[in-house]
């Protein structure tokens, strides 16, 4: 159908049946706006659903929940690549490449499990404030692992990122030490994954599209998580079935939650495709602020002026860091 449309196009243009350039541009802009809106909804949606399940609904099994996310990502990625052909299928070419992807999967597991666990103990607003410090950890890991030094301007821009979190932490009414530590672990894990991914999959032969990388990482991550959920959380399948007998709504919640978790990855790719990586970074900064406001409105967790000021300072630091890195790259070229 797509091919026939492409081949019909010149003929249609000849007779004026194809929309004018301005119409095509407005439709393209509308599509981009819808994709960005979907990205916001899925990102904030998975956060709120995780928080609701783990804290309010009483389904306190973050490892199993993460495993469901991974299984969902594996299944939906398979359909998107093999049937919908959103991107071409890429194959793993060697045992070495397989081991590299497996290592990334382990780091990914650690980050996501820590993030979901932190939602049991911390409000979404504070979770997002801590998550905004990812650039700080990225700079540290890049320096430790690759000895890559940034300019003094870049490192100075990281100071408000850290200072803002100190302010927010000292004034957080629902502060929980364990929740704080695992949230820091999640943020550090996310940063470590981005650095390690840049190192491990640098050669052209080993580079994988983000959608293909998810296709291979997700089932590996699920396999890594399986023994941990059985050992730490027990026979969770039996517990879930028992809960579903009393309240079938939990099945809808779990399936919906796992589906939205995949949509986060899909819309992440689509936003980058239709805009740019820099736009995604800017939207990410704004997303954290939107998530804070939405979570406070829904869950009514108490916030302080000092806490919101700290979060604002952190976001400002992230923006300054992004600008400093952009200028640094321009001058280096």
UniProtKB/TrEMBL annotation:
This is Nucleotide-sugar transporter family protein. One of its GO terms (cellular component) is membrane. The chain crosses the membrane at residues 30-49, 61-86, 98-119, 125-145, 152-168, 174-192, 213-230, 250-271, 278-299, 305-322. Its main location: membrane. Keywords: Membrane, Transmembrane, Transmembrane helix. Residues 33-322 form the Sugar phosphate transporter domain. It is found in: Membrane. SUPFAM superfamilies: Multidrug resistance efflux transporter EmrE.
């Amino acid at each position: 159908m797509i091919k026939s449309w492409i081949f019909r196009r010149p003929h249609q243009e000849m007779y004026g049946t194809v929309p004018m350039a301005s119409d095509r541009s407005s439709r393209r802009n509308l599509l981009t706006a819808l994709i960005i809106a979907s990205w916001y909804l899925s990102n904030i949606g998975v956060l709120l659903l995780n928080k609701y399940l783990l804290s309010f609904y009483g389904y306190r099994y973050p490892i199993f929940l993460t495993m469901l996310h991974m299984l969902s990502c594996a299944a939906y990625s398979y359909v998107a690549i093999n049937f919908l052909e959103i991107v071409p299928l890429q194959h793993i070419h060697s045992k070495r490449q397989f081991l590299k992807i497996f290592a990334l999967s382990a780091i990914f597991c650690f980050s996501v499990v820590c993030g979901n666990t932190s939602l049991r103990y911390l409000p979404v607003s504070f979770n997002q404030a801590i998550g905004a410090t990812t650039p700080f950890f990225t700079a540290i890991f890049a320096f430790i692992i690759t000895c890559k030094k940034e300019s003094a301007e870049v490192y100075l821009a990281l100071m408000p990122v850290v200072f803002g979190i100190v302010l927010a932490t000292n004034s957080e009414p629902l502060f929980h030490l364990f929740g704080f530590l695992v949230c820091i672990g999640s943020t550090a894990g996310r940063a470590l994954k981005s650095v390690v991914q840049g190192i491990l999959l640098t050669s052209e032969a080993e580079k994988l599209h983000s959608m293909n990388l998810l296709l291979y990482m997700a089932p590996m991550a699920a396999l890594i998580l399986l023994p941990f959920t059985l050992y730490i959380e027990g026979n969770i399948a039996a517990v879930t079935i028992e809960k579903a007998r009393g309240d079938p709504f939990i099945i809808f919640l779990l399936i919906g939650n796992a589906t939205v978790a995949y949509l986060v990855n899909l819309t992440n790719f689509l936003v980058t495709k239709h805009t740019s990586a820099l736009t995604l970074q800017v939207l990410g900064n704004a997303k954290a602020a939107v998530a804070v406001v939405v979570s406070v409105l829904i869950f009514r967790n108490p916030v302080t002026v000092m806490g919101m000021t700290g979060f604002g300072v952190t976001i400002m630091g992230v923006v300054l860091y992004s600008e400093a890195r952009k200028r640094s790259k321009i001058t280096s070229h």
